[in-house]
Amino acid sequence: MPLAKALDADQRADALDQLGSGELDVLVVGGGIVGVGAALDAVTRGLKVGLVEQRDLASGTSSRSSKLVHGGLRYLEMFDFALVKEALEERGLLLTRLAPHLVRPVPFLYPLEHAWERPYVGAGVALYDAMAMAGRYDMGVPRHKHVFRRQLARMAPDVRTDDLHGAIRYYDCQVDDARLVMTIARTAANNGAHVATRTKVTGFLRDGEGDDARVVGVRARDLEGQRDLEIRARVVINAAGVWTDEVQELLGGRAQLDVDASKGIHVVVPKDRIRSECGFITKTEKSVLFIIPWDQFWIIGTTDTAWDLDLAHPAASKSDIDYLLEHANRLLKDPLDHRDVVGVYAGLRPLLKPMRKDGEMGETTKLSREHTVANPVPGLVLVAGGKLTTYRVMARDAVDHAIRDFDATPASITDRVPLMGAWGHAARTNQRVALSRASGLAVGVVDHLLGRYGGLVDELLALIHERPELGEPLPGAEHYLRAEVLYAVTHEGARHLDDVLARRTRVSIETFDRGIAAARPAAELMAEALGWDRAQLDDEVDHYLRRVEAERQSQLMPTDQEADEARVKARDIV
Length: 574
Fold this sequence. Notes:
By secondary structure, the chain is of the alpha+beta class. About 35% of the residues lie in helices and about 20% in strands. α11 (about 430-440) crosses α12 and α18 (about 535-555) packs antiparallel against α19. It is globular and about 70 Å long.
C-alpha cells in the first residue's frame, strides 16, 4: 500500500506557508462537503489548489445531516426526475467505487396506511429502482419488495401494524457525513492540495477599480497562530453554505445568490428501544420522518423550519424534540420519551431561493435542493444549494465554471478517484479474521475499524502494535478505541477536543452523558500529540463540558429564540 499523507500539525503549518507564498490556481473557501469536493476536483485536474476553513472540517452543515446517501424518494412526487436520477447515480458511484468503506446500504420500510397507497407508492419506488439501474454506475443495492401485514409484524415487532396495510421495503445508503468530508479533504491533500483549518477569510484582494474589480485572492487570519496572511489565486471558489450571504457582504453586499437557512434536528435513541430489521420513512404534514439504523442506535429526523439566528451553533428546542418523538410514536407500540434520547443535533440546510427583500423569511420546505453556481465579480465563483449525495457534481460544476478561461485544463476525473481507504478495503475485509488474530483485537472491533478506515486500517493496527494500550476502549465511550483518538490528531486534522468527540468520532451523540466521561481521557491522548500543557488540556475539557451543558439547556427551551440564547452562552475554543 502506498504511504498516505497525514493531516497533522506539520501539514497545516506547511499548508499555511504555501498559501502565503506564490499564486494558486484555485483557492477554495469552506471546508464542508462541497468545499473539500471542489479542492479534490481541482487538484486532480493538475491545478495548484488551496483550501481554508475558519473552524474544523465539516463543522457546520456537513456533520449534522441525516447521514444518508440517497436519491431523494420524495422528489419524485415533485416530478424532479433529473435531480433524483443524478442523486441515484452518485449514490451508486460512492457505494461501489469511490467510498465503499464509508457508504453502506440500509433497508427502509415505507408503511402503508391505506390500501390505495400500495399501487401508488409501489409505482414510485419501482421507478426509483429503475432510474438507479438505468444510471451510468452500478445500482449497488437490492431492489424493493412488497411487505404485507404479517411479514411487517415479523420484521418490525415494535411497530403498530393493526392499522397498516403492510409496507414497501426499499434500499438507500448511509454514511458518517463528517468522516466523508475529512476523507475527501485528506484525499485532496494527498494529491497536493494545501488544506488549512482554523483559517478565517477576512476580506478579498481586488485588482482594478470599481465594483467589477477582479478578485485575485483573499486576506485571511490564522486563528491559532494569530497571524494574518494574503493568499493570492487566479480564482476563488466560495463554498460557504449558509454563510454565503456573509461572504457576499465582504464584496460590499453585491448578492447574486440568496441562501436561506433551514433548521433540521435529529435525535438519537438506543437500538433496543425499537425492534426492527429496517429503518422507516413516512411523510409528516411538514416534511419527511426518517428512523434510521445507526450502529447501536436509531437516528430520528428531521424537522424543516426557517432559522435566522446563530449560524455556527443552531439549537434544537424542546418543541423540535417533541415534534420528532410525537411523529415517531405514531408508528410505535411503546412510545419514546425524552428519557430515551441519547443525543440531539441540529444542522442548517443551505437552500436557494429567489432574491428576497430584507427581513423576509420564506417557506423553506418549498425551496429547491438543486445547486447554483454564480460569478458575482471576475475571479470569484459562488456555489450553493444541493445536498450531500450530489456534492461531487456540485464541486465539478463549480470548478468547471471557475476555470472556464484557463488554457487547456483537463476535465474532471473525480468519478475515477477512489477516496483514501477505498483501496485495500475489500482485501482487508476478507482478511478480518487474520487481522483479529494478529492484532489481538476481537473480530467485531476489526469490523468497526474497517467500517471507519477501510484499507487504512493498517495504520491503526500499526499504532496499536507499537503501543498495545491504544488497543483498549476509550473510557466513557467504550465503542471506540484509544488509538482512534490519537489517530484523529496525527492523521485526520483534529486540533481540538470538539473535533474528536463531535466529528472524527460521534461520541457526543452516542453516549447518554454526551461524552462528558470520555472528555478528559480523550484530551490526555490529544495533549501528547499536540503538545498541550496542563492548562490548555484543562481548558479544552472545560470548554467541552460547557458546550454540553449549553446544548442540554437549549433543548429544554420551548422556542428557537430561547434555545439560541442558551446555546450561545458556551464560547468557542478558537
